[in-house]
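User: Quick one: structure for sequence A, then sequence B.

Assistant: Sequence A:
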Amino acid sequence: MKMTRIVIAGGGFAGLYAAMQFEKRLARRADVEVTLISRENFILFTPMLHEVAAGDLYPGDIVNPLRRILRHVKVVEADVQAIDLNLRRVHCVAGVADYELEFEFDHLLLTLGSETNFFDMDGVRDWAVTMKNLGDASFLRNRMVALLEEAVFQTDDEMRRELLTFVTAGGGFSGTETTGAVNDFVRETVRYYPQLCEELIRVVMVHPGNFILPELGEELGRYAERKLRERKVEVIKGPRVANYDGLVVTLSDGTSIPTRTLIWTAGVKPSPVIASLGCKTERGRLLVNEDMSVPGVSGLWAAGDCAAIPDIESGTGKFYPPTAQHALREGVTVAKNIEAAILGQPLKPFRFKMLGQLASIGHRTGVAMVFGIKFSGFIAWSFWRSVYLMKLPRLAKKLRVMASWTLDIFFGQEIEQMITLRDVEELSSQWARIRARAKQTKAVSSSALANSGHNDA
């Protein structure tokens, strides 16, 4: 029996929903092997990251273990390093000791997503807080509490203001939602610190455009800006963040903002693995056909943030945007096309019209545009929560999120530090010892195998 090997590289929305489609039919066949390679053994529900940062949800509320979702698809926790299209192999590293793994494929689906783009600003890369993964959101929340605690024993108000100044770079969805969440958290939490006052807090959002949330249009962008300003958020439009040294944010117009926290949400770029393939790209994203196959490479497919899929129906020559609602539908469609290719059936082009876009801007306020209809305020915020609650995978997680939201209404946010600086230092030291021991064990095992093979010869 000839085995058909399908490898999915990337465990984000596109990769998971493709795997879930294979789970229904193709992965159950004895002559097909489907493997999902993911950096983490869970799927992160990124639209709710800012709620973890604000303490509205716990980190475990917005993650789902892949092995609980996929029973017939083989799940491998590893980091994709390179792809050899000639030998049709995916090279990965996995485990504490960085074991090298190789996976052969007949069909390879690339759903590697994107990573943070610092635009070659070393200071920003070294000192800024990002909002890309679960660790980022948890770190930001613990950082805010730690800075409040540190501000208590400071006697100089200027130093306190520096500690309690939070700057966000970027006024898109992630930047706006994070800014609103941070502002809510620090202003509502400071009342538990009698030595401090709200006047010491400064929350700033830097956005180079004319209005924030440009994806929702000027009307909703202006509304969101007005609401943020009413809650004492400074919105600086026009200049960009030019540098950050851990103490001072410098803008392109020369403005300096003393702060210990810069939250960077100003750009993403596709995985560097994409560039190494040598295939045609569009702004770093892999250029694909309407059916998400890569031109000129048999058995290679791409979807999600790393793929540039032409939007033919729009007539504008543009590509579908890298959003979650597109990615999950792309994953389903490309999985069906891979199955069709294996069975010798015709492929279908990807077609999808955006249903709408939603944003939470803090203090139970939101903005929304659904089927062309724009609305804002509490109704939009309630709609935001309802929509994303429905999209959250697995009933168990939905119930936990509902419980967390309900408890937050009656009892407010918790302000404990889940991980302190002392914990980080101890964990780092222990992790270094574990990693060194694992690599040593790996080297000894490799040497023993080599000697065994030499003796056999």
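Sequence B:
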Amino acid sequence: MSVMKEMQFPVSVRWRGGRLARADARDKESLELATPPEFRGGLAGYWSPEDLLVASAASCFALTLAAVAERREAPLLDATITATGHMTRRDDGRFGFIVIEIDALLETIPGAERAVSSAAAAAEERCLISQALDVPVHVAVQVKAAAELTSHIAGAH
């Protein structure tokens, strides 16, 4: 039996005045953050904490999928993940996220669609970010063989 060591992910955030902050983490580029323009006093053109939460869920799914597909030798050729976080007044009366929807368009070789779909289902279950959230994360997966995509694109012209 192997024992998993504790992992830590330290960051620091410094308020820069107004609605602007800067996040730093060791050996990474700084990230300028702001209140999103949807909120009073928010600023356009910056990543917001809300953007980062949705990006965390989507990128966690993508990277977990890549790892699962690699371990299972499922031929994942391409993955395009889009995600939308929905905020509104929740059942508890507070304003916040009610769901994060993730759409995954995955490309594989002909005949491997089932293997890639299975890897995607496992990735959805194993994504550590989705597990950490008290908000449902719905993943819709569409897997196409590369030949299908090529013929579909060619037919569109």
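Confidence is low (pLDDT under 50) at residues 151-157. The CA atoms of residues 92 and 98 lie 11 Å apart.

User: Thanks, that's what I needed.
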